[in-house]
Amino acid sequence: MDKSYLKTIVRYIVTLLFVIAVIGLYHIVNIRLFSFDITRITKNALFEIRNVPPIDRSVMLFNVGKLSPGELEIKIDSLLIAEPKQIGINPCHFDQTPSDLIKKYKNNERVIFANCDNLKSGSLSQVISGFNTVTHFMTDRSDYFELNLTNFKGRGNEKERINYGPKLKYPMDKGELTDSYFWFNPYLLKDKTVLLGYMGDYLTDSIYYYQNCRVTPLNEYYGERNILPDMYDIEISANIMRTINDNDFIEEINQVVRVLIILVFSLLNVTALTFIKTKWTIVNLIIATVLFILLNIAGSLLLVYMFDKGYYLEMDELPLILMITTAFTVILNISEKKGQSTTQ
Q1: CA distances from residue 250 to 61, 83, 145, 167, 287 in whole angstroms, order as listed
Q2: Which one of 44, 58, 100, 202 is most buried, by most CB atoms within 10 A?
Q3: How far is the C-alpha of 133 from the C-alpha of 218, rounded, in Å?
Q4: Distance CA 285, CA 289 (A)
Q5: In what helix (H) or strand (E) does residue 312 lie, and over which residues does it extend?
């Protein structure tokens, strides 16, 4: 076997080992490359840079604010007069579960309460992960609060990624239960799904309360640690329902395909550096740097393209893998060049 051919095979084998090792390491340690972390930065901004889906006009949100259970009961009765399709209520902001209120509407099929016990029927389907972040909702059972309101039976997955729509604006797309505009225009609520939940004591553009409030991909600082939450639970429920009602699901790329895509980028990098080289070391370093930048940009563009087509791809490991394989290949090229010079 030709010696140069054997060396090339060794490079590819070592590259494969690098890919497997780094991807495995990312499952253990949250590695960050700061400004080089372009694929992670792109992934975290996907929901902000895309073409935003329309707001689900079949769902109306109302803030219960500081209403007591007794005051909320009066509002629910008023809403029922407007003949909404159904009313979904999240009472989890109360210090104690309003048992009497829930009992009153127990036999009314149009009034559905969220269960604040995550292990019981009617609980919220949202998945709260590290740092109070919500990106997915559970579909392993059909009795979750949002699934009850949509009659969604699942697609065979235990959980789905929430396809967040535009951030709801105050007060155009949601109002307070004290807003008289809706009481004088009850036809606006007819046949709509009305969601009632806590969205702060007052309607403002900023969130000052942590109660029932989470970090979502629409957060300006999403991906960073210890950041202020940006969306209340009832708003997240609305986004889950929009995803279901519009059948606008995001397909997540599985681990095997993800690894293969990263491997293709890595092998392309090694192949280019192996065959596109000159006798000048400084020029080779410039080529390696430019190729590293171009491949990272290509990876980010692939993330955006796939997301636009409804697929969610993660390649946080790509910059580090490209950095390692670039350094490895350049060092091999330099050592081979020195070996050839010594032989001559």
Answers
A1: 24, 33, 21, 18, 37
A2: 44
A3: 11
A4: 6
A5: strand 311-312
Whether 65 has a pLDDT exceeding 70, the answer reads yes
Tokens encoding 340: 């050839």
pTM of the model: 0.83
Banded pLDDT at 172 (limits 50, 70, 90): very low
CA dist., res. 151 & res. 160, Å (int): 16
Residue recorded with tokens 């709509």 = 192
- pLDDT band for position 179 (cuts 50, 70, 90): low
pLDDT value for 203: 47
3-state secondary structure of 24: helix
Of 167, 165, 160, 172, nearest in space to 220 by CA: 167
Q: How many CB atoms lie within 10 A of CB 290?
A: 10
- How does residue 127 score in pLDDT terms, banded at 50, 70 and 90? very high
User: Letter for the amino acid at 227?
Assistant: I
Q: How many CB atoms sit inside 10 A of residue 142's CB?
A: 12
